[in-house]
Amino acid sequence: MLSSASEALLDRPAREPQRLPARADVTDGRPTPAARSGTPVIDARGLMKSYDQRRPILKGVDLAISAGERVALIGSNGSGKSTLLRCLIGLHGISGGSLATMNQNLSARNHRAVQDSIRLKTGFVFQKHCLVRRRTVLSNVVHGFFGTPGSWRAHSHHLAPTAWRMRAMEALDDVRLADRALARADTLSGGQQQRVAIARALVRQPRLLIADEPAASLDPLSGQNVMELFARLCADHGITLLFTSHDMDHALTYANRVVALKNGRILFDKASDKVSQEDLKDTFDD
Amino acid sequence: MTDIRHAAPSRLSGLTPTHFVAIVTLGALILASMGQVAPSPQQLATGLPGMVDLVGRMLPPNTEPAFLWRVGVRILETFQIALVGAAIGIVLSLPVAWLAARGVSPLGRGHYVFKAFVSFLRTVPDLVWALLFVATVGLGAVAGTMTIMVDTIGFCGRFFAEAMEDAEKDPQDALTAIGARRSSILAGAILPDIAPSLTNSSLFALEKAVRSSVVLGLVGAGGIGQELKVAFDLFQYRNASTIILVIFVIVLAMELITDKLRARIQ
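Structure tokens for the assembled complex are given below, as produced in the milestone run.
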């Protein structure tokens, strides 16, 4: 499926990151009407979120992301990036405003059916790989089928239907780890474990891939490889990518649009090639 | 330069008046109780020759083949009570622990009900459970098996629940984000993570079950304990010493086997 692309990618781990072309339909501040008219994947308007009434985390976020975009969400610690990502897939209910992901409206208390509908089309990769360490690599990838009909068979690759096993092996092939399918997850390096997490997210062929600082726990080279893999697989499959990062090289290189959050509000929303040093300074200054 | 000197803190700085009163009260309670229930030197002086006399009457242990065969059959029954009771108890402990584990239970705050239930099973002594089951299902091994089962749920239910609460949270979050149900998160992420802890607790439960099952017969719940009670009731001290030695060997063997298995798991 994606083998040739990912093989070519991982065969040259030390190469310079290639700057991906910025989308022409994004201008300073907001997506253009052309982008807005595309298939909306995420549409947040005046989004509010607070765990404690006195300390709101998100204070009216407007964000529209169209199909096929690669968006980097940047901001200092506590700016609300991770909270926003979790709200997008219904892990956290919202406190105000409106939010639709994959045309499903999310609210303060999200119904299971709405969450399931979104999660079926969304892959989520965490900062830490979050694998079940005592299970095999293949079983961890098969876990990606949880939430689908007959998901009791997703507990282990031994129980999984042949079609799932084949899809899981294809996903592992994409991330160049098919030869480690039967190894225990905790015997892999950090970079390899993150690649398994990506395979687990991709196995259901999602339309949207959300990654919360996917390279933060990796060394620079592994982090670069993981980000290149993300960008390339999303481009090949037409998957919309939304990731957070503290690494500005990653944000500017692998996204075609950068959204900065500061104190729960959007500071700027620009094409990645329009982001200036001044913008970054404003984002991270106290 | 400013010369700042600090005096050494008081030796008893950590001792508050409340602590002092508590220590004195505890000491007084121990001393008063010793006067009432501890053996006096006179009692020790008269009791020791009696003990020596009893040990003398226990020797040599009875090694008649017919008696040894009867003991062997009773030991097998004891082992069966321990094994079956512990196995059923361990299996039943898993759902009970899931319902009792904070942050994991599908019942939310309702987990306290199951936590209290497990505490209740654990706090009632096994001999009391045995008396209850003898009264309800009659004398014999079935009462013993039910006692071990309940005792194991009390023991494993607590340790399994604690292990579930301490299981790694990241994989659980990942499976939640994928859309896994609570039961899938239990089977897919929690149980694989805590498998060594579950095995360890189960081996302890089995060891405890073997130790408990040898005394359950004293109240009529089957096993070798019943034979031991008969031997003492009929003053057959040579028979009693044989049974005590066999119990010692069985419990020791069980501890050695479970220790080896635990070492392999580590």
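The mean pLDDT of chain B is 88. The CA atoms of residues 214 and 247 of chain B lie 7 Å apart. Further analysis is deferred to the final report.
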